[in-house]
Structures are given as structure tokens and as C-alpha cells.
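Re: the 212-residue chain
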Amino acid sequence: MTLDKYILDHSEPQTEALAWLQKQTNIRTNHARMLSGAVQGRFLKMIAQMTGARRILELGTFTGYSAICLASGLPEDGHLDTLELNDELEDLILEGFERAGIAEKIELHIGDCRDTLRRFAQEGVEAYDLVFIDANKRDYPEYYDLVFPLVRKGGWILGDNVLWDGKVAEEPMPQDKQTVGIDEFNKKVVADERVESVILPLRDGLNIIHKL
């Protein structure tokens, strides 16, 4: 038995709706590896609960697995805004939300994350308690700058895939735009005196950032 299987077998199992979505993601997309998965999904739900988040923002919905997990950790009056570029996934995303019974807590925004974030800033949206960044890796540094003003003091930002299959630690480090973007993001965060942060080796790396 591998350690990953042991962890999965001894953690709370995913719901029927999440199992359905995982299967559909494998059948209907070419990038099922991007799915958060049962262990990280459970962790995201618990993070939402532990932080007492009432408003959550997600960058990069994909098929909606992580959005369902985060929304499941919200209180009755909680709300999640999730941003996704690929409009071809919209039907699958919304069906997953309905099956999970949390559709009323989530609003899906289709379009470029950066444009949506700038619009949110212009509209003066209520500050978020928790932000989960899991969109285009090359743009992580820009996402960080755009979401920071939207997070309340004492709020949290989570950056996913921050170890990028270990590429960020290779010497010499690969210079593809995704690896460079992730590395710049991690450097930006650790140098930011407005936050405290720690990277956990959960799945492909999760940077947990606390806005002071």
C-alpha cells in the first residue's frame, strides 16, 4: 500500500456528488489531473470552517470540485464567487453544484480572472475572508496583487500548485512561463511584510498566506 492510498483510506471519503464529478471530469476533459481530489478537497472544506469564512473567492474553477469543497465549509449565509475562463465547462460545473446541493451559495463568473478582479475592485465588493488561487500559473504574481486589496485584514489566501512537480527547486530551474510564474509568486509572498506564510507539501504544494 502506498502512503497516498493510506492517507486516502484513513481520511473522510468524498461525497457522492464529488465522486460523480471526479468521474465526469475524467470522462469529459483532457486535464483530469487538475482536479483537487479527495484529500485536498477535504482540507479546503476544513480550512473554510476553521477560518470561519463567510465570503470566499476562487480563481480557477475547472470543473468545480474545489468550489464545492470550499462552499461546503461555508455557513448558511455564506457565499463563494468562483472565476473560470473556459466557458465550455460551464454546464458541467453548474450540474456539479446542483448535485452537491450548494448551488445557491456559489456564483460562477466566466471570463479572464484579471478582468473580473478589476471589475470587483471597481464595484467595491465586500471583502473576502478566504481566497483560493488555482488558475493560470504564469499569472500568479499578478493575481496576488489583484486579490490582495479584496481580502479583509486577518483574511487568508491559498496558492495551489506552488511546488509545480518540484520544478521550482531544480537547479537550474526550468524557465518555462508556468514555473517562473510560480517561483515569482512564492518569492513575492515570502518577501511581503504584510503577510505571514507557510508552504505545505500537500499534493502539488499549497502556500497558506495570512494577511496581517
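The chain has one domain: 3-211.
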